[in-house]
Amino acid sequence: MHGEFQMLGSLKISLAGEDVTSTIRGGKARLLLAYLVLPYDMPRSRKQLAFDFWPDSSEKQALSNLRKLLHDIREAFPPIDRYFSITSASIQWNPEVPVYSDVAEFERMAQGQTLDELRRADQLYRGELLPGFYEEWVGMKRELLDQTMMNVLERLIARWESRREYASALLAANKLLIRNPLREETYRTIMRLHALNRDRAGVMQTYLQLRDVLDSELGIAPSAETERLLERLTRSDDDLPANPLDNTPLIGRLGEWGRMLEAWKQASAGRSALLLLKGEAGIGKTRLALDFSEWANRQGIQTAYAGCCASVSSMSYTPVTTWLRSVPMPSLCMEAKSELSRLLPELMERFPDLPKPSPLRESWQVNRWYEAIERMLSVRDPLLLVLDDIQWSDEGTLQLISYLLRSDAGSRLLVIATMRTEEYPNDALRDFFHRLRTARKLNEIEPAPFSEEETKRLAAATAGGIPANRHALL
Question: Is the pTM of this model over 0.85?
Answer without folding.
Answer: no
